[in-house]
Amino acid sequence: MTRRGVIIGAGALGGLGAIGLAIGFVVAPRQAAFSYLTAWAYALSIALGALIFLMIGHAVGARWTILFQRFTEAITGALPVLAVLFAPIALALPRLYPWVAPSGALDPEVATKLAHKAPYLNAAFWLTRAVIFFAVWIAIGELLVYWGRRSAHGRARALSAAGLPAIALTLTFAAFDWLMSLTPLWYSTVFGLLYFSGGFVAALALIAVVASVARRVPAVAAHVRPSHTGALGRLMFAFLVFWAYMELSQGLITWIANRPDEVPWYVARGAGAWGDTFAVLVIGHFALPFLVLLSKPLKRRPALLAIAGAWLVAMHYVDVYWLIMPVLHATLAIHWLDVAAPLGVLGVTVAIAAWRARSPLASEDPRFAAAAAYEGS
């Protein structure tokens, strides 16, 4: 499919999804808000994962990442539109977050506990933080794309090295604000890392898919070789293990401590069909990809790595859905808005990211020849 075809196709699907969401916010506003948040948080995690991958490549002076730089920049370029698409979440604040509700509408014990968190969990400060987060992400992302296209490597490297701690902090607090505060009496110090690692794996997986599709362009096929996809596959494998470790660490510590203020979050996500969903994640998001990505020959074959990548991109949606939806439904209940929301959010995001994308290869980079000659282990 051509770039123009992607823009038209994704835009059409985005338009259909947007119509469905508009209807949903009228007839089932709370369901629409949660479905929208799930789709949006999923897309954001991948865009931020791509930004972090781009920054790591610049910060360490990696050569092999230059072959994927334009694909990574294209995914990072979705951040401005995701900032605009944050507006419905801000408008649906009272339908999503119990800490916004008047104290009289809550159980007295819950209201007392939330009162202690009010200096942090209040709408004005929450929105202020959101503006700061997006300002940091978009500023860094846009500067890196601009300097990357002008081969300003020194500036890109300095900004990436200095900006990675800022991205880590803002992403962590954003995960706390937008996802963890859905259940404001529960907390986990590794929740930000959990959200980051899932999004980072999905971003790498999406880059593998885009790179494989782009190999239809002769120049891409001539330069993106098995050694490059092998390196990308090794990084996917490493952070897949890291994601699983974050899941295990959070769950194991909660299970050992057995504290009444921590256990309910897992009880809600382990009951009935939600427990089956977690089993799907254990097998589909970790065990199966783990075994597949162990294969060195597979990682060095772009088409096969793209298939594994597409699977991980899909599994990441299940992961985000499992994190968010048990707040709304005590048992798994897939709603038609759960289809309309990803169509709307992802369709619009992909269309604009594809429209902003430029040449598939950073061939003007003076390091490109060395990058193309990369031979990994």
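That was protein one. Protein two is written in the same sequence-then-structure order:
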Amino acid sequence: MENFEEMVRRLDGLATGYTHSQILFTAVRAGVFDFLQEPRTAQDVARAFGWSVRGARMLLDGLVALELVAKEAGWYENRLIANTCLVAESEGYQGNIISHKANGWAAWAQLPAAVKSGQAPASIQEEDTAEERRAYILGMDDLGRHSARDITRRVDLSPYKRFLDAGGGPGSYSIAFLQRHPEMTAALLDRPDVLPIAREQAAKAGVEDRITFVEG
């Protein structure tokens, strides 16, 4: 059973969790982890991003506290988790879904009003911007591409030559299936504003010519 001090520490962690989120959001959106693939000083970071040295050092020390970045004698460098999941070109990149969650920051700040009315505040009901939509769709790829590849290892799709990806988003499953089965083609169905992102992802993967993009 928790003692009083443990309960206070737990509540403090809950109450200050937003500070951790904002440190992460700021670093991801700026591209700090791409820059810290090799050791850098706070002065290097400040110069690269147009920040004050004091501000850069505070952010970097925050990343050290979150155990995302290592610090030694004034030099900062990514830890394994950052190189694996927060560098844009890494296979396990999660920056898009983190950016999507960062976009929800302002909405969550309106939770008291939503609880009172039982409805989302009017500002939250507005159409998302192209940038917010892109972060969400590519965030779905951050989450989906690994499970899609896992499916190709566990399920034998070799008897099938045509695949319908309904609500295909960024095309994670179409891409994984087509890469696994060279004779397969796909039809990817999604909203008109999503398809350009799916087409872009398919082109990067070299399978665009095997996918029919269908608006719906």
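The two ends are 54 Å apart (CA to CA). Keep this in mind for the problem set.
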